[in-house]
Amino acid sequence: MFRNIKDTLSRSTAMKASVVAGLAVAALATGVPAEVSRSYADAVNVQAPQVPSFANVVDAVSPAVVSVRVESRINPVAEEDDSFGLGRGFDDLPDDHPLKKFFRQFEQQQGRGQQKGQNQQKNSEDNKGHLRPVAQGSGFFVSEDGYIVTNNHVVSDGAAFVVVLNDGTELDAKLVGKDSRTDLAVLKVDPKGKKFTYVTWADDTKVRVGDWVVAVGNPFGLGGTVTAGIVSARGRDIHSGPYDDYIQIDAPVNKGNSGGPTFNLNGQVVGINTAIFSQSGGSVGIAFAIPATTAKDVVNDLIKTGTVSRGWLGVQIQPVTKDIAESLGLSEASGALVVSPQDGSPGQKAGIKNGDVVTAVNGDPVKDPRDLARRIGAMQPGSKVEVTLWRGGKSQSVTVELGTLPADQNQASNDDSQPSQPQQPSSEKALADLGLTVGPSDDGKGVAITAVDPDSDAADKGVKEGEKITSVNNQHVSNAGDIAKIIEQAKKDGRTRALFQIQSGDGSRFVALPINAG
């Protein structure tokens, strides 16, 4: 039975194949399309969400973005007669040099020595005060009457400025004001009855990592260049100053983009391109922009007065590390540790001392030294602020009337400049637990460090021979016995670290060292 079914199926299959083959042959012979003759697959067509175009944003903001050409006054070397291809530089040779004597005699024989001197004098007079381009950058209008924002480092060496509009129009500009601490500057062009297209500031506090941004500027002198990317990080400190709080973007930014704007998709300025991270000088996809909230206030001050007035506390500070927090009994590593109040500063007058930790301003917690610097700098001179301090294991507050930040100082800066005294040890005593050998200083202030164990925590923290210990746990020390006594008390109090104030030629700093051994 199974055999008969198999034979029947085989015959049926053969008949169907024969019919299909016949249909195919007929179709080929008559040219009539047949389904069985199709041999090509459909082309790939993926239905996916389309990335939004930046074209509308670019069309709207481009007229507000300008190229900035900076010119400087120079006195170029006078052109010399080089008919004989001798080149320049022979005037720099010593008077008794054989070559110089030879060419002087040759010129005299040719009767051109006097004429050359006359030509040089004439060229010098013609070129006196000559302006020559020395830098290029970017900028953008923030008002219809011609105020332009750019970077301070773009215009800092300039004597004259020319802005080039999107349509190629060149306009002379004057410098309204600049601020080196935030690297911002404002230029002004005469509108002559014209209203310029301008852009507004975004609220960059609402910008999130991952948001799209568009940078427009003048990289390598190629005006009107547009690049796009995303916000890749916030709050970056690139150690360019006490107010570092940069937005990091991954849009390609190159030389010449400095001072140019970075926009959100609403055409608002999120930040001002000011620096790139690069080992070659070209873009590697990491750029830094000044946040709009920082730039807005500075630009407004520059437009109004040409300068920026900042509050001044007048204390030198450093970060609070976990080790320092432990040594002081703080529950977390935050705030700003006061290294030294400056003489006559508002902070000193209010009673702030070295070793204090500023934990809050007007009740708002202070994260770190940069946070304190920005908060104080944003306040008006003469303002009274409540500064919360951590001192002696407890919190207390003082009221400070802020001064005006001097032009040659960095308010609340961690750039210390306290001079040190020469150190020459007269005797030594080993503090084995700390890896230090110390002796009295020759001025009787503090304890001189005469040796450091290279395998100790002190060496790992950067403590060096020749430096001086001026205090331990905010108590002044004058000999090794003082140090040992303070450490013993810290151990009784349950502390595992002690806070050492170290004085060196570079200034003063605090270092937390372990005291749990021994």
Tags for this entry?
alpha+beta, Thrombin, subunit H, 11 helices, 7-stranded antiparallel sheet, Pdz3 Domain
**Percentage of residues in helical conformation:** 10-25%
Terminal residue distance: 100 Å
Overall pLDDT metric: 78
What kind of sheet is the major sheet? 7 strands, antiparallel
Could you please say which CATH topology of the domain at 204-305 applies here? Thrombin, subunit H
State the total count of DSSP E strands. Answer: 27
CATH homologous superfamily caption of the domain at 204-305:
Trypsin-like serine proteases
Q: Which class do the helix and strand fractions yield?
A: alpha+beta
Given the C-alpha coordinates, what overall shape results?
Answer: elongated
CATH class of the domain at 204-305: Mainly Beta
Count the DSSP helices. Answer: 11
- Stretches where pLDDT is under 50 for at least 5 consecutive residues are 1-10, 12-30, 77-90, 408-430
